[in-house]
Amino acid sequence: MTESAVTYVTDDMRASKDVWGESQTSLPIAASDIRKWAIATFWPETPPRVYWDEAHAKTTQWGGIIAPPDFSPFAWPVERSRSHQPAGKRPDGKAFTGMNGGQTDTYGVAMRPGDVVTARSRLVDWTERTGRFGLTMYTTTETEWRNQDDDLVKRRMSIGIRY
Description:
Strand order of the largest sheet: 1-3-4-5-2
Number of domains: 2
Strand content: 25-35%
């Protein structure tokens, strides 16, 4: 096989490009989950009252408690799902080395107590180029969260790096 013929792109990747995978649905979000998340993420400072004080939150533009944008209703699953990151070996038989190449989040509506969030992901694109560690693949994955009203909660574009 010539150097130019080597690729990490698989037939499975080609077939799954732009195809949404299985969705995952959260349990209803509890106000206590939001409060605990806010306490943990703002520690040692006191979190903004809109995340834990119902009386105060009712006076805000949201009219009630909301979750911090980084809140995850999927943070404590009973069963863990396996990563959707492509597994396997490089064409030379060695295991891939992988790392997070960064992510960009875009937020929609705020999450609130009682919301049920559904997440789904898809492989958007990939590029390959030769770098310091040899052939390197950069994959772009989109993850979308929507609430029970089908409102966009969050969109994440992630870059995965494998070599």
